[in-house]
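ping. complex inputs:
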Amino acid sequence: DQQVKQNSPSLSVQEGRISILNCDYTNSMFDYFLWYKKYPAEGPTFLISISSIKDKNEDGRFTVFLNKSAKHLSLHIVPSQPGDSAVYFCAASLNRDDKIIFGKGTRLHILP
Amino acid sequence: DSGVTQTPKHLITATGQRVTLRCSPRSGDLSVYWYQQSLDQGLQFLIHYYNGEERAKGNILERFSAQQFPDLHSELNLSSLELGDSALYFCASRIRQGMNTEAFFGQGTRLTVV
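pong. complex structure:
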């Protein structure tokens, strides 16, 4: 049972444009959501998070949007830069039991 | 540098063997998580320890076990290894349970079973 789903295995975006990565979840009890970025042969690096009581959180070029009714969140990267090429993981956490569940990831390619 | 240290970085071993992966969390972090990443797969949650006690289990095989010691470092023990156990194993730490904060990951241990 995959509770966090990233349905796009890969995404290609022109440098300077907006990258939008999507994530769906099934457990309405999740109360905290995170995005991680991963380069090959490295551990995942935290990017940005959002609490379930908010619908938007912004940090520089990164914005996460949460739509609880649709059980959907998205990560916007504007403008996209070559260094953004990586695998992005969406994750969800339940405060009560503290597990952090990850999606399968989306590989983002930023094209010159 | 996330502050989470995993050793060894690489491990090659034969089927049927047993290995131990070690994780030192960030200073002050009480929660330790273990994840497995197989080829082109997501991060599969294995197990979570908090301040020495097991808190949650994911899809962890019975051949695998873990513990967290009084100094908060953690070890993941994998026994009777099979070819399919070849994967990247990541450890992550989080400051404490019940707080919505990010978890910090180590660089991972790449296990190859031959």
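The mean pLDDT of chain B is 92.
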